[in-house]
Amino acid sequence: MSTGFPDLDRDLGGGFERQELIIVGARPGMAKTSFALQVIQNYARRCRARQQRPDWSIFHSSEMSIKAIVRRAVAETTQI
């Protein structure tokens, strides 16, 4: 599964593998949530362009509420 970030995909040998558990960890304020949301949205866009049904993704953040995460995802999608 391509991350949508070509350099990262190259370093990972083509992207993530299906059925993997991916944990993104770093210090606070290092854009972990933005990165993870962007990867999920890139994947969903590629599936939609190919008219494929995307696999399930589970997103959890210990630093942000669900309302804040949804707000951020909507802002990214609408480019506000």
Write a brief structural summary.
With 80 residues, the chain is mainly α. It has helices at 6-11, 32-49, 66-78.
Task: Explain what you see.
There is one protein chain. The protein has helices at residues 6-11, 32-49, 66-78. By secondary structure, it is an all-alpha fold. It is globular. The model has no long low-confidence stretch (mean pLDDT 87).
Largest sheet: none
As a percent range, the share of strand residues is under 5%
Helix content: 40-55%
Tell me the structural class: mainly alpha
Q: For the record, give the distance between the C-alpha atoms at the N and C termini, rounded to a whole number.
A: 27 Å
Shape: globular
Radius of gyration: 13 Å
Low-confidence stretches: none
Rounded average pLDDT: 87
Number of strands: 0
Number of helices, where a helix is a run of at least 4 consecutive DSSP H or I residues: 3
The SSE order reads HHH
Keywords:
80 residues; mainly alpha; globular
Task: Tell me the layout of helices and strands.
Elements: H1 6-11, H2 32-49, H3 66-78
Helix pairs in contact: 2-3
